[in-house]
Amino acid sequence: MFSFEGDFKGKRNINLGGRNVKVDKAELLRKAQLERQQRERERLKLQSAYKIQAFWRGRACVKKLRADARAEWDRQIEQCFGQLAAGTQHSIGKTTLSLVRQFWFFYSPLKDHQRLEVSLCRLLLCTSSLGVPILMSPYLEGLIPGWKLALAKILAICLESIAVNHGLSMANPEDVSNVIKVLRVALDPDTYTLLQRQSDAADWSGIYRGQTMSILSTLYESIRGFFLSHHLEHKRLPSITTLVHISTFPMQILQNNDPSMLRIFVSQLLTVPVLPNRIGIDALAHFSQRLPLKNIIAFMAEDADVYSLVEQQRIKQDTDPFAALLGNILAFAQPKLSKFEAELMGAYASVLQQLIQRLPAHYLNAITRDGDNRTASTAIASDDDEDDEMELSQTVPRIDPHLRKWLSSLLKPSHLEPIVRSLPAQNATLTPTASTQTQRVGSFLLALMTSWSHQKSDIGTILLFRIDTGLLQRLWTISRQSRLWETLATFRSLENAMTDPSFSGEWSMLVLFCELFVRLLTTLGDDELFGNKTPFSVQNLVELSEVMKNITFDLFWNERPESHGGIAGTMISLSHLTDVFTRLLQQIHARDSRRGFCPKDHWLMLNTPFDHSTFTDLVLQETSDSGSSITAKNSKARPCRAILGNIPFVIPFETRVSIFRAWVLLDREENGLDENWHAPVARVTIRRQYVFEDGFTHLNALGPSLKSRIAITFVSEQGLVEAGIDGGGVFKEFLTTLSRQAFDMNYGLFQATSEQLLYPSPHSYAAQDMQLHHLEFLGRIVGKALYEGVLVDVAFANFFLAKWLGQRSYLDDLPSLDPGLYQGLMFLKQYEGDVERDLGLTFSIDDAEFGEAKTINLIPNGANIPVTKENRIQYIYLMANYKLNTQIQRQCQAFFSGLIDLIDPQWLKMFNQQELQILLGGTSTPVNVADLKQNTTYAGGFAATHPTMVMLWDLLEHEFDNEQISELVKFVTSCKRPPLLGFKELRPGFCIRMAGEEVDRLPTASTCVNLLKMPAYTDKASMRR
């Protein structure tokens, strides 16, 4: 490439090929560029070679220098040991400083650990002529500045080496290594006390503080690493015991409220998983005694930076650091809780709450999963448990059994009771300090219930029944005195209250109160709730429901985005807030529906941003498929549906019935069922004496097609086909006749309560496959009646109707099913004696059917688990659940599966149980004669002005009582109750036809078409007769 022959010009390239070669310009430039790049690479290779050679020569030189230094150091230290043995060493401090400086020059962990352990540390531990360890001699010889640096360096080297050989001596495995001994001497405050006695020329306490703080972070990080590198069975190692003592030395002289020290101590040492289990019993007692737990708790309650440091540990260990820290705090705090004053207990609750908030999602639920220790009350899981289990298996690893034990103590009554008892007394003045204390405790308890959803029922039981502190009443009293309650009660801006962090503690108290009150209501009968056996008056319930109604309506009506953070400064999400308020409202409304303690129109939203016709239009509005932008009006369609599905009682019943009818009409239009040319989907012949059997045989297989028109032909008991064309009236007669037969208890499918309300039979016969098919068919028949607006004279029990709404039934429904069992459970609940010894109950039921006795366990192995004072609430809950839900579960599911073939479940959720019964069988209000008169048509010669009709209406309005009028309505329509929205809704309409002028004849009726056939009576006596 380069010429060194003296020619400064390049040789010309002469082409002897006989032809001229043209070189493209672009190709020429490309070649030039490649040549430049090649020259550059050659130059870089040459430079790299220079650097590598220089580095290698430097390292070789350093290696030789260090080898020479090691040899010289070995010679000097042997000489030093000889002089010490001979007693001729006088300036040991200077010699030590020189040796330490030489040592850190050549020190390599792999090559020089033996020199560190056997030579240097052994030398430093020897006693000098001054009576102190040689480690401290340079200080007494006036070498303080130089020795501070040298000692810090050598301590850092020792900390790096503590894990070698498990921290044990190479010469004696029963003893700790000299490395750890040097750390113990250098960090022991007693060493500096000894220096103080030798000389008062220096501030030895200040030197100790400075020396310790300079290595504090490295100290605890190294001890942490040592613990994590050893298994729990190594806890009796002498090195671990010594390191535990070393870890407490800084606390003896440093300020226990020093933020820097506490942050390092908490983030490094207290995040070691299951720390108490890694320490021998004697060392643990020493550590617990020296641990400044109160200072740590008070500090962690106020300092946010410590949690940021703990967060950094997540990438360094398998166990979540917040879970490890929570377990350690619980382990060391529980023996001392009884000595915590109220303010410190509030700080403790705040620390627990902040740690729980930072745990991974579902972490506490994994404790229940891994331990497989669900209790009786947990056996009735929430609706979300299955989803939680799926997420658990995907997100949370198995939890160490020892950590699980410490975390499980969160739920122990012995742990929760002192926390709850630290709250101010119910009649105490609520000072700012007491308010803060209450909010902290409330926030912790709510965080515990929210994060540990699998144990929410247990937590509620403990707080309400195991700890006799009046917690619920205290929360209610304090919540009513809060700024938040004033804001909500006056219906100011809910959004401002949700986003203002200053309300966070008050929100936590209110939501905790609602969670516990919902739990309490599931275990209270109506007689308890209204019989002065609870601290809540009717006025309290009215006030509470009024505020909750307004808030919940706002939460549904003013949709917030999914990204909404919920309540600022808490774990309360928007969905959680909406859910708990909705459940509480539903519970109170259910009680009011039975006992009627709220004022008229209490549940209605009277000051709404819409009228009821607008609301109906929004609900019925269909989503556009054109992809056009959503207007402000139709953006409210979804909130309206949410209101109907969750708190429908804020909308008048008549409006909801209209919406139900409109939904049915839309469904009919979508399926083309109202077109005149639409042929019947089936033509069925029904024998009068076998209406149920024939109906099941011919119609059950239709499924959802039962919505269509069905043509019925009756065959009389004599085997004759009854004349007539089914235009809808005959099918109505079929429905009413089938209902009377099928719901007869002789069929064995249904039983009746003491109030003659029907529910599926709990006997095993009703759970057989054929009977379940019969129940499914009956569900379709009831659905057909609802779909067609045909009233049937059947009354169902409330707890059975609740299943139509997807709801569970609770203790308050039990009196309607089994009053005797309910009274027995109430006796058990209030029993003051020894429940286990005196009553001898177990978590099982002894049942007898067809002369055969059997035992049914309410929980696994329930027959061997006694009912005690502590678990009797779970027993009451499970017994009511078995009777009201579990025992008839298959029968209810079969009935409901048939019902929803025709009726959308969301349509039903607009109503409660009492309203469903009205929807099915009509209102129990007196018959409105004026409404009946207005909606009656006439035929066969009758008219509104006909003398017989004038006389009939006068008789009904002025002489017949309501019972007589109802019997007349039943005679004509087969149902004594009037339609929900008046007789204008009756299909076919109420009609009176003249049946001749023979006044000695009795009137007749065709219930299939709601037709009254009446002779033209001329006097009231004949008409009345």
UniProtKB/TrEMBL annotation:
GO terms for molecular function: ubiquitin protein ligase activity. CDD domains: HECTc (cd00078), IQCG (cd23766). Residues 702-1025 form the HECT domain. The keyword Transferase applies. The keyword Transferase applies. It catalyses: S-ubiquitinyl-[E2 ubiquitin-conjugating enzyme]-L-cysteine + [acceptor protein]-L-lysine = [E2 ubiquitin-conjugating enzyme]-L-cysteine + N(6)-ubiquitinyl-[acceptor protein]-L-lysine. One of its GO terms (biological process) is ubiquitin-dependent protein catabolic process. Keywords: Transferase, Ubl conjugation pathway. Coiled coil: none annotated. Gene3D superfamilies: Hect, E3 ligase catalytic domain (3.30.2160.10), Hect, E3 ligase catalytic domains (3.90.1750.10). It comes from the Eukaryota. Its EC number is 2.3.2.26. The active site is at residue 1008. This is HECT-type E3 ubiquitin transferase. It comes from Powellomyces hirtus.
